[in-house]
Amino acid sequence: MSYPRKGAKQISELANGLIDPVLAKRAGINTALLGSWSEIAGEDFADCTRPEKIAWACGGDETGGFRPGVLTIACEGARALFLTHAQGELIQRINSFFGFAAVHQIRIVQKPVSQAIRRSRTPPPLKGEAARKLEGMMEGIENDKLRQAIQRLGTAVMGKGGKQR
């Protein structure tokens, strides 16, 4: 097990450090909210919604304290109606995430929400000439783990998506 060197940072920490100020300035949100949105929204709305921005109230309340903002959420089609009915619970979940009453209202905007396409990490097995060629290349490899690793790599490279040489 290797331990990180002192002073070394993960790329995600550096990226969040660069992205968070831009998101905060333009949209009033941060990467933590975006990254945790599927847990906050729950399985009913995680696939069809996306937080867009939080409009924070200017100034404060009468006592000079903090005033909660309005969260704009992009939602697909008819699911916006169901989201409207569940917005009280969603506001509670969002405020629980922040740890204080950050949002007092949700504004729903109907528009397409694109989700990242998840591809299968294991390519389909090779057939025919490509499979025979890969087997020929792996002759003489005795270590089983190394053979399996090269099999996976060769399948990915020589498969449908890769170029055969």
Describe this structure in words.
By secondary structure, the protein is an alpha+beta fold. The chain folds into two domains: 18-110, GMP Synthetase, Chain A, domain 3, CATH 3.30.300; 116-164, no CATH class. It is built from seven helices and three strands. Strands 1-2-3 form a three-stranded mixed sheet. Helix 6 (129-137) packs antiparallel against helix 7. It is elongated and about 80 Å long. The mean pLDDT is 78.
The number of distinct structural domains comes to 2
Decide which structural class fits the backbone. alpha+beta
Give, in spatial order, the strands making up the sheet with the most strands: 1-2-3
Average pLDDT, rounded to a whole number, is 78
Please indicate the percent range of residues in DSSP E strands (runs of 2 or more): 5-15%
Uncertain runs are none
Find the count of extended strands (DSSP E, 2+ residues): 3
Give the % helix.
40-55%
Instruction: Sketch the major β-sheet.
Output: 3 strands, mixed
Order of helices and strands: HHHEEHHEHH
CATH topology tier name of the largest domain: GMP Synthetase, Chain A, domain 3
Named at the architecture level, the CATH assignment of the largest domain is: 2-Layer Sandwich
Q: Report the C-alpha radius of gyration, rounded.
A: 24 Å
Task: Describe the global form.
Answer: elongated
CATH class of the largest domain equals Alpha Beta
